[in-house]
Amino acid sequence: MLPEAIEAMTEQLKRVGNPSSLHAAGRQVRRVVEESRETIADALGARPSEVVFTSGGTEADNLAIKGLYWARQPRRRVLLSSVEHHAALDPAHWLAGSQGAEVELLEVDAYGRVHPDTLRAAIERDPDDVAMISIMWANNEVGTVQPVRVLAAVARDHGIPFHTDAVQAIGQLPVSFAASGADALTLTGHKVGGPMGVGALLLARGLTPVSVQHGGGQERDVRSGTLDAPAIAGLAAAVSTAVKHREALSRHLTELRDELIERVRQAVPDVVLNGDPADRLPGNAHFSFPGCEGDALLMLLDAKGVECSTGSACSAGVAQPSHVLLAMGADAAAARGSLRFTLGHTSTREDVDRLIEVLPAVVERARRAGLS
Amino acid sequence: MGLRVLAAMSGGVDSAVAAARIAEAGHDVTGVHLALSANPQSHRTGARGCCTIEDSRDARRAADVIGIPFYIWDMAERFQRDVVEDFVAEYAAGRTPNPCLRCNEKIKFAAVLDRALALGFDAVATGHHARLVDGVLSRSVDEGKDQSYVLGVLTREQLGHAIFPLGDSTKAEVREEAARRGLTVADKPDSHDICFIADGDTRGFLAKRLGSAEGPIVDQSGEVVGSHQGAHGFTIGQRKGLHMDRPAADGRPRYVLSIEPVSNTVTVGPRTALEVTSITCGPPVWNGPSRFDDLTVQLRAHGEVYPCRFEEAGGGLRVDLDRPATGVAAGQAAVLYSGDTVIGSATIVSASRA
To answer: Domains of chain A: which residue ranges?
Structure first.
């Protein structure tokens, strides 16, 4: 966590009070919540009234996708990119399975990008029946940045609500809710150096999704539940700090990442970089190592003190070939042999040195162990 | 310098304590849970089955308490092919397989061991109740929990890379130690039955896989005394569930004597007709000391042992018992012991009265 977020959060933990209460303690806490709302809105080009606090990205995605689908009945169609995070895919599939939705996963190119023409063509097959559209700002696995502004404009041409999961983008890419043209945008605390378990849905005024959870109606009558004021204070401090330092961090990460990519290519000549080579998250480098299994690479690197990730894991923890890579046209073997390196504000050139020092032997060993 | 050891962790108490012991002994231990089902159930019910998501979480929790890295390896495809399909095919052929033995032979000490060695590990440790000293396998001190029978199939090479840290402890001691170490699985029920048949209904599982086809139950003279819904539902020596139309002439209970899958015929007879003294087996695995005395053979898991002699012939093994055994089924293993020490093992092909 960023020191600014820790400080804001711990300061608030010392205070009691429910921000919905009328007494003095409650008013004091409410002030912190509302100032946090203003801080976040200011940092992300939104109005304070557009900030709906949630328990994190998953809840925000669920609220946007299910809530807007229900609000737009009797429309049936839900359009998503085929490379969305499970927090977006799974609510949509649930809508299809038990609420009569027709979910269409939009094709992506080999870099994982949705072309505006693809979205337009999908809408135009039956524009009046599209309930909502959800396309992420930047992909969490391969890092590819989507042309959100153009995609949102296509949706706007047809008057269809457009949601974007920007969990990965904030603090790494310039994000302005107003300029993006999106109607709803998801963010979460722990991806911007803030606390876990808190996030927000930026929600354009005049747009009212049906609630997913019902209760006191604390957040615009759209989201109920006592607000977690300390976490919200931490989130606001993290968002404003991350946005303030974004340009410098982004420059640093881009430089370090390009060096990492270059040196990995030298160390393992047949490695394949996944995702857009240029238009990607500054801290993301994602590779396929032919003949290796991602799990084996991860275990061997972890034993050498290098932490990285494979794609997604199912609930039993068994590695599944990434749906993102499969959607990009990779075969199952290449998808299983993939690894993501994520750089952040604490990453240094020494980290890259360490990786390059151990990588060739690790890849060699994983290759011998083969794909089981 | 310790060894690099892969500890197979099922989520049960035995493998958790086994991993803890070798870690404490100074080895560099990594915990691995084997995911054996492509569509695991989320929770286990009672003592049946394993490999649920809950089991993998229990294993991870134990690894965290021990303080070792933990991974899940997807072995579902290999397990399906080498254990589940084999199990079904064996029943279809009229034999009675032991899937735990097959899993040790083909998965834990083959697919997993090979991968572990390739990844730079020196050995695979499991929570089996068996002793292994200088590569020689012998029974656990806990006779009731002894699992040397289902490990007897392993070659010297496989045993050379195995570690069984629990062989000198009883199950009660293992549970006690788990509680002392703060392992939450200390009082988790033992698993019984066949892990991939979660409801314990083996006959139902086989009927689903092999279908049902009515066939005759005949006595030794060939006279039809009843009918059944598929010969694969029976095991040599079985007495219950025969549902015959009429009692035997002598009024005594009847047992399954043989299963003929091609004609779908089950032959029954009196207990005395089950007695065999000569057992023909497939190619033996010799993994114990080459000099031994007081040879005995065990013919099924947790079964009795019989003093015996053996002879190698035509690539196979013939075992002659000093006194008759009953309920000897093709497909089970004949594991040879000298005292508590495993000498070797072979798969039973047929048995007869000499």
So the answer is: 3-244, 247-369
Task: Please indicate whether, in this complex, the C-beta atoms of A299 and B120 are within 8 angstroms of each other.
Answer: no
pLDDT at B43 (0 to 100): 56
CB contact under 8 A, B76 and A318: yes
Whether the predicted pLDDT of B99 surpasses 60: yes
Rounded to a whole number of angstroms, the CA Rg of chain B reads 21
The answer to whether A317 contacts B118, with C-beta atoms less than 8 Å apart, is no
Q: Give residue A267's Cα distance to chain centre.
A: 30
> Tokens representing A166?
């920007």
Q: Biggest alpha carbon distance in chain A?
A: 68
Residue A353 makes CB contacts below 8 A (sequence gap 6+) with none
B195 assigned to active site: yes
Report how far residue A301's alpha carbon sits from residue A34's, in angstroms, rounded to the nearest whole number: 44
| Active-site residue identified among A22, A24, A314, A318 | A314
Mean pLDDT of A337-347: 92
CATH fold of the domain at A247-369:
Aspartate Aminotransferase, domain 1 (3.90.1150)
B119–A372 CB contact, under 8 Å: no
Query: With bands split at pLDDT 50, 70 and 90, how would you rate the model's confidence at B44?
Result: low
CATH topology identical between A3-244 and A247-369: no
Is pLDDT of B199 > 90?
no
Residues of B with CB under 8 A from a CB of A: 30, 33, 35, 40, 42, 53, 56, 60, 69, 71-76, 78, 111, 115, 118-120
B72–A366 CB contact, under 8 Å? no
Name the packing angle between helices A246-267 and A229-244 (round to 10°): 70
Reduce the DSSP state of residue B322 to 3 states and report it. strand
In this prediction, residue B348 carries a pLDDT of 97
Q: Other CB atoms closer than 10 Å to residue A365's CB: what's the count?
A: 16
> In the 8-state DSSP scheme, what is residue A295?
H
CB atoms A316 and B40 under 8 Å: yes
Q: Map out the domains of chain B with their CATH numbers.
A: 4-187 (3.40.50.620), 212-273 (2.30.30), 275-352 (2.40.30.10)
Place of tokens 């047992």: B255
* Residue B133 identity: V
* Rounded mean pLDDT, B184-211: 86
| Selected residues 2-21 of chain A with any CB under 8 Å from a CB in chain B | none
Amino acid at B46: G
Q: Which of A295, A315, A369 sits opposite B71 (nearest CB)?
A: A295
Whether residue A308 lies in the annotated active site: no
Q: How many CB pairs under 8 A join A and B?
A: 46
Length of chain B in residues, anyone?
A: 354
pLDDT higher at A309 or A340: A340
Q: Is the bond leading into A74 cis (omega within 30 degrees of zero)?
A: yes
Given this model, what pLDDT does residue B319 score?
Answer: 97
Q: Which fold has domain A3-244?
A: Aspartate Aminotransferase; domain 2 (3.40.640)
CB contact under 8 A, A365 and B120: yes
Pick from B72, B79, B80, B122 the residue to mutate for testing the A interface (most A CBs within 10 Å): B72
Nearest residue in A to B36, CA atom: A318
Q: How far apart are CA A163 and CA A180, in angstroms?
A: 11
A252-274, pLDDT tens digit by residue? 999 999 999 999 999 999 999 99
Residue B206 to residues A60, B90, B92, B101: CA-CA distances in angstroms?
Answer: 47, 11, 9, 19
Percent of chain A past pLDDT 90, that is, above it, reads: 87
ipTM summary value: 0.80
Which residue from B72, B75, B76 is facing A317, i.e. has the nearest CB?
Answer: B72
Query: Is residue B41 scored above 70 in pLDDT?
Result: no
In chain B, what residues touch A299 (CB-CB under 8 Å)? 30, 69, 71, 119
